[in-house]
Amino acid sequence: MRILGIETSCDETAAAVVEDGVKIVFSVVASSAEMHIKTGGIIPEKAAREQLKSIIPVIDEALKESPIKTIDAIGVTVGPGLIGSLLVGIEAAKTLAYAFQKPIIPVNHLVAHIYANFLSDTPPQFPCLCLVVSGGHSDIVLMKGHGDLEWIGGTRDDAAGEAFDKTARLLGLPYPGGPAIGLGAKTFMDKNPDFKLTLFPRPMITDDNFDFSFSGLKTAVLRYTENNKDTDINQLCAEVQQAIVDVLIAKTFKAINKYKPQSLLLAGGVAANLHLRESFAKKAKELDLGFYCPPLPLCTDNAATIASCTFFNQKTFSLKDIEANPELTINDAF
């Protein structure tokens, strides 16, 4: 079965054709990231205008360049995300579904992140414990099967991606903050491999739950930098990164001890952080646990994950019932 996936939740305009949920036939992403770098963050209205410019060329390229010229269904992101951006993709998908009489399936963007790990010849084994970490979300989910998700913990305030971006801004680093902090941290640790990174707190790391809170880390970085202006900026990057990674590992593996999954899945934009990936892989190996993490291009927003999620969750809706929901959470039913 061939699915056309469409993704426009934020500042990427993406389309992809995926076969049977596991094989990427063709995928294309147009990003307006360079424009947002100039403003130090995403301006929703500008992001939506760029989506309007890109949506038809992107879909056209995906369909024309794909060696498979026919599709069986259309999957489209309906949330969460920026309302203006979401509407661009949804209206394009509805138009195509009506014109070609194809079923249309709404997709939760956060759930789709998990499916980056299923675009593989060796998919994860259920049950899976999934950590989804992105700019606005940090969630731990128990996945018992396709369409069978149980949310067991998540962020109470700032998500991991927000913590990276906001602390990077405090340190005077460019947007997006996550890659900038990752690069600074690597620079410092390559020169100081045995340095103990204990400067900043690990919020809620010992609490008896699976929730996260990173706003306190942001405050600690602010106070420290106000009183210690001569500290090596790369050391601060390494300190911030390690504090975030320590919390994510502690909470996730606490959940693993309780739920005993067959597979551990890492997903979302923050999953592109190399130190996070390596730390999770090392810990999973110690436990002889199957660990899955997407290739870097599939960590960030793309339409291949939307198409894969569509294939494995084929609940179709009428055109009038498909609406944008910017506040959608990972455990919301459509």
Describe this structure in words.
The structure is a single chain. Helix content is 42%, strand content 19%. It is built from ten helices and ten strands. The two termini are 23 Å apart. A five-stranded mixed sheet has the order 3-2-1-4-5, sandwiched between helices. Helix 5 packs across helix 6 (177-191) and helix 5 (160-170) packs antiparallel against helix 8 (233-259). The longest helix has 27 residues, at 233-259. The chain folds into two domains: 2-116 and 298-321, Nucleotidyltransferase, domain 5, CATH 3.30.420.40; 126-293, Nucleotidyltransferase, domain 5. The model has no long low-confidence stretch (mean pLDDT 95). The chain has 334 residues and is of the alpha/beta class.
Write the layout of secondary structure elements.
Blueprint: E1 2-7, E2 12-19, E3 23-31, H1 33-39, H2 44-65, E4 73-79, H3 83-100, E5 104-108, H4 109-114, E6 128-133, E7 138-145, E8 148-154, H5 160-170, H6 177-191, H7 215-227, H8 233-259, E9 263-267, H9 274-286, E10 290-292, H10 304-312
Parallel strand pairs: 1-4, 4-5, 6-9, 9-10
Antiparallel strand pairs: 1-2, 2-3, 6-7, 7-8
Helix pairs in contact: 2-3, 5-6, 5-7, 5-8, 6-8, 8-9
- Measured by DSSP, the beta-strand proportion falls in 15-25%
Overall number of structural domains: 2
Rg, nearest Å: 20 Å
Q: Give a short account of the largest sheet.
A: 5 strands, mixed
- Would you tell me which CATH topology of the largest domain applies? Nucleotidyltransferase, domain 5
> What is the CATH H-level superfamily of the largest domain?
ATPase, nucleotide binding domain
H/E series, N to C?
EEEHHEHEHEEEHHHHEHEH
Q: Quickly name the level 1 CATH class of the largest domain.
A: Alpha Beta
| Strand order, largest beta sheet | 3-2-1-4-5
Instruction: Identify the CATH architecture of the largest domain.
Output: 2-Layer Sandwich
* N-C termini distance: 23 Å
| Count of DSSP strands | 10
Mean pLDDT: 95
- Uncertain segments: none
Quaternary status: single chain
Shape label: globular
Query: Roughly what percent helix?
Result: 40-55%
Structural class: alpha/beta
Number of helices: 10
